[in-house]
Specification:
Two copies of one chain form a homodimer. Helix content of chain A is 22%, strand content 36%. Chain A has 146 residues and is α/β, with parallel strands linked by helices. In chain A, a hairpin with a 5-residue loop joins β1 (39-41) and β2 (47-49). Chain A is globular.
C-alpha cells in the first residue's frame, strides 16, 4: 500500500476524521506515525501505545461499520515546526436519531508530528464532554509559532 | 508576584503536579502560559479556555484544601524545540483510605510551550482511565526531536 503524505497537520486531521466517519481502518492507520511512540485514549478507555494496540482498537470500533455522521467543531490549533496540537469537539449523530438522541460531544486533543513521510498523528486523547461545551462556539484561527 | 521561570517542560510539569497536590492556586497559575491560548479539560468537565476560566476552575477544585496524595506515573514525553507533549497517569490516594478506596487513575495529556518566560503549560486534558491502565507499566525515556 502506498503511504499517504500529509503536507500539513490539518491534512492529517482531515484524513483522520474522514477515516473515523467511514470506519476505514487502513485510512485511519495511514494517519498515524509508524516509527514513533504513539498514544491513543478512546473515551473512557485505557491508554493504548504502539501500532498494534492502536490498530486493534480501531478495528474493534469499526467492526460494526459506519453508523454515525461526524461533525468536528471548535478547533483550536497550536502549531510548531515539528509538533502541532489540535483541540476539537467531535459531534456524532446517529442516522435516524432525533435531536435529543445525539450522543454527548467528545473533546479530543490530537498531536501531530512532522516526520520524513509528512505530518502524522502521534497522540489522540478523547473523552466525553458535557452536552453544553462552553459559552460561545469558538473558531480561533490557527496559531503559528514560527 | 515574581514569575517563575521553568527551564524545561519537565520543570513546568513538576511544578504543575506540586501545585495540584498542595492545592496551591498561585503555584498552579504560575505554570500556565499568560499570553497564549490555553485549554484545560478536567475529568468529565467542559473544555475551558483562557486564564479566567482556568483559574476559576482550579480555585473551585482547590477550595477544599489538600486531601489527597498524588503520584504521577508512566510518563511518555515527546519534545520539540517549541512544544512538548507529556502523557501521564495521575494516581490520587485519599488519606486514610485503604487500597480499594483509591479513585481510578486519571490519564492526562499535557502540552507545554517554550515562551519568552520559559516553558509553560498550554493544554491539560485529563480524563478517568480504567483501573487497569494497560499491560506493563511503561517508563519510556524522553524522546527528543532535535
Amino acid at each position: 500500500m502506498t503511504a499517504r503524505i500529509f503536507p500539513t497537520a490539518q491534512d492529517a486531521e482531515n484524513a483522520f476524521y474522514e477515516a473515523l466517519e467511514r470506519c476505514d481502518l487502513e485510512g485511519m492507520m495511514a494517519v498515524w506515525a509508524e516509527d514513533e511512540d504513539i498514544l491513543c485514549v478512546h473515551p473512557g478507555g485505557p491508554r493504548l501505545t504502539g501500532q498494534d494496540q492502536v490498530r486493534e482498537s480501531w478495528a474493534g470500533i469499526f467492526s460494526g461499520g459506519p453508523r454515525a455522521r461526524l461533525q468536528v467543531s471548535q478547533q483550536v490549533a497550536i502549531s510548531g515546526m515539528m509538533l502541532a496540537v489540535h483541540s476539537v469537539f467531535e459531534n456524532f449523530s446517529i442516522e435516524g436519531a432525533q435531536g435529543d438522541a445525539r450522543p454527548a460531544p467528545i473533546v479530543a486533543t490530537n498531536v501531530y508530528l512532522r516526520t520524513a513521510a509528512g505530518w502524522r498523528m502521534i497522540v489522540h486523547h478523547a473523552s466525553p464532554a458535557p452536552a453544553q461545551p462552553g459559552p460561545a462556539p469558538r473558531q480561533a484561527p490557527p496559531k503559528f509559532l514560527h
